[in-house]
Design brief:
Number of strands: 19
Number of helices: 13
Radius of gyration: 25 Å
Structural class: alpha/beta
Mean pLDDT: 91
Helix content: 25-40%
Distance between the termini: 37 Å
Number of domains: 2
Low-confidence stretches: none
Largest sheet: 8 strands, mixed
């Protein structure tokens, strides 16, 4: 099966002039965007346009700001008649993300953090893509075209980063994801000619992502958890910062352990720490909702401008949380539906194939360890006392995909955990939680 999508970051469409754009043998005249030519030529299944809240021309709440911004983009599409763009509106999704700065065209001033654009686009892009491809088989041909022609300064870079991150994780399951970067020749005012759209780069996505662990801190339970949202200004915050469902330290550690297991090929860790995806999705959406509910919109009569003030910024850990959710969906797509402490060998082989066949080194490392399980002399046993120091223990876990004595036992066709929560080492003198132990594999290069 095939799936094709065009993703286009847009700046301010009201500043664009009509011209002609050509891509390969397709050319459209009297249009304001290269996207219309690409739509006509590629006939995609979906179009995703990424704009920003700085497009807004009206609105006294942030919800109205977003709606006004979206209408600017919708108006640009609707005012482009012609059979070549027929059906485009029905296929188009619009993401209005976060901007910062002063915008004289619409008398708007936005205060906040420019980095907030990235996690918002990462989350919404993934959801729009996932609603289409979630039912596609892993051997489907997926083509992602990114039209960078009209992106505003930071937007092309962060959009490409988001697409690359998503595709890298999706490529665990979907083996044929092709990303193509497009950009037209620079537009010259007053020069009436056809502008060619060029392919800047084209490559196949590979599972080369890295999701660092989320830091776990022993903060007071009544203190605002800054793991995912950070106040920009501690004074005059509009609401209580604890309105969303915070993720406690145990939850963070288990998310880390699951993420590490997915990245290191630790199949039993994937089953043991598989997250509640509905709960994780709600937590992410709660954080986004709280962020937007805390935004204040005011009209400054003295300066005759609308002022939009964002009181929080997203931390780097929030990006990790989103990526862990995507990893969870990949595990679910591969057949993991719930946490299990005992797994039959055929399920382990199947999971290894579905998740790691696109990563030859990891796939064959794990397969080699699975092949050993049926050998009574080589299969791991529940020998509780370990003499290894922690560093050697972690190295041993990675070398044998977690199938080592004292942690995993193989018996009667099934692998099972020998320990509940703690792993002992140095002849039993020290111990470490399983979640922390698996997380520390991410620190080994």
């Amino acid at each position: 099966m095939e799936y094709k999508v065009i993703i286009a970051p847009w700046g301010q469409p009201k500043l664009w002039k009509e011209t002609s754009y050509r891509y390969k043998d397709c050319e459209l005249e009297k249009i304001k965007s290269s996207l219309f030519t690409l739509y006509h030529c590629l006939n995609p299944d979906k179009v995703i346009i990424i704009g920003s809240d700085s497009l807004s021309e009206s609105g006294n709440t942030y919800e109205h700001i977003v709606c006004s911004s979206k209408n600017i983009i919708l108006g640009t599409i609707m005012n482009t008649p012609g059979s070549e763009t027929s059906g485009m509106m029905e296929k188009t999704k619009i993401i209005i993300s976060y901007n910062v700065g002063k915008f004289k065209l619409n008398n708007l001033q936005i205060e906040g953090d420019l980095g907030d654009f990235y996690p918002h686009v990462l989350w919404n892009l993934f959801n729009y893509l996932w609603e289409d491809i979630r039912h596609l088989p892993g051997d489907s041909n997926i083509e992602i075209y990114i039209d960078l022609t009209h992106g505003q300064n930071f937007m092309p870079t962060l959009t490409h980063k988001a697409v690359d991150t998503i595709a890298s994780i999706l490529s665990m399951i979907y083996k044929n994801i092709k990303i193509t970067l497009l950009n037209s020749e620079p537009f010259v005012i007053g020069e009436e000619r056809t502008y060619d759209i060029y392919e800047l780069s084209s490559y196949i996505a590979k599972p080369n992502f890295y999701v660092p662990p989320i830091p776990v801190k022993n903060d007071s339970p009544d203190e605002f958890d800054k793991s995912f949202l950070e106040p920009i200004n501690n004074s005059n915050l509009p609401n209580s910062p604890n309105v969303f469902n915070q993720i406690n330290n145990t939850g963070k550690m288990e998310y880390n352990a699951f993420s590490a297991s997915m990245q290191r090929g630790l199949l039993m860790g994937i089953y043991k720490f598989f997250p509640n995806l509905s709960k994780l999705k709600r937590a992410i959406e709660d954080i986004f909702n709280f962020y937007e509910q805390s935004i204040v919109v005011k009209f400054n009569q003295e300066k005759c401008i609308r002022q939009v003030r964002k009181h929080y910024r997203f931390s780097d850990n929030f990006d990790k949380l989103i990526q862990i959710h995507i990893l969870g969906l990949m595990a679910q797509k591969a057949g993991v539906s719930c946490r299990r402490n005992m797994v039959d060998l055929s399920s382990l082989y199947d999971l290894n194939y579905k998740l790691y066949y696109n990563d030859a080194v990891l796939y064959y490392l794990v397969k080699n360890e699975l092949d050993k399980l049926n050998n009574p002399d080589k299969s791991p046993k529940c020998k509780q006392t370990r003499s290894d120091d922690k560093h050697k223990l972690i190295r041993n876990i990675m070398a044998h995909a977690l199938f080592i004595n004292g942690i995993i036992e193989y018996k009667d066709g099934c692998a099972r955990w020998c320990v509940d929560n703690q792993v002992r080492y140095e002849s039993g003198r020290k111990s470490i939680s399983i979640a922390e132990l698996l997380t520390e594999t991410l620190n080994i290069t």
